[in-house]
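Friendly challenge for the regulars: who can give me the structure tokens for this chain first? No prize, just bragging rights.
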Amino acid sequence: MKMYLEKCMLLDEQRSLIVRGIQEGKKECEAIKALIPNYVTNTYAPRLQYDAVNSHVERMILSNPHTQMKIFKKKAGFHPYIVIHDTIRNIFILVSKLPKTKHIYNPSGYRGDFASSNFDRLLDMGASKEELLGDTIYQPSLFHGQDNHPFGIIVSYDRDSDLIYEGALRPDQEDWIYKEDITDSIVLNTRDVVPLNNYRSTDFDPRLKTPKEDRDIVIKLKNSPST
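First reply, four minutes later:
Bragging rights claimed.
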């Protein structure tokens, strides 16, 4: 199954951009907090870090359009969050703070969207049911092709330490399909990274010059020879 998972995991440059965004967001948050007085109830602190991280991750993605990733801003109730979409591989990425002292999130509706079709995607790619599901009771969807089953990744960061994880949840959200420490996944020289994908010709709207009508064409005749 590892072979199929590797095709759905973040690529080196994607991972590097997201990790850099998280690190720079946390660094900016600490710089801002150093300028704010120590209030009796510092309720702004966790929200400030979350906002700074999301802003820097978005900035990283938008400043590297060649990765062909898009950013969507969404809300779950009163909770705003951003979603990164790998438009070529149909993979959605959520950047989220992991609750303190926990290795996994509590089940939620919006995080469930990032897990609901993960099994279907891997099964469509050819992963073994026995190896993927084990004793898990799961009813696969009808085969629609892997492009129609998005894969959901969650990049989790710790509030107080430098730890950053990449993982994919099972559809029941009770465990991870995979989870890896990507804290040190910074690509120092992006020129050494293999380009993600070339744009397809169908991604472009060809713009041809508007053809001129016959009456708009000026024919220049040679000057008559002098007599």
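The first strand starts at residue 69 and ends at 76. Residues 189-214 have pLDDT under 50 and may be disordered. Your move, everyone else.
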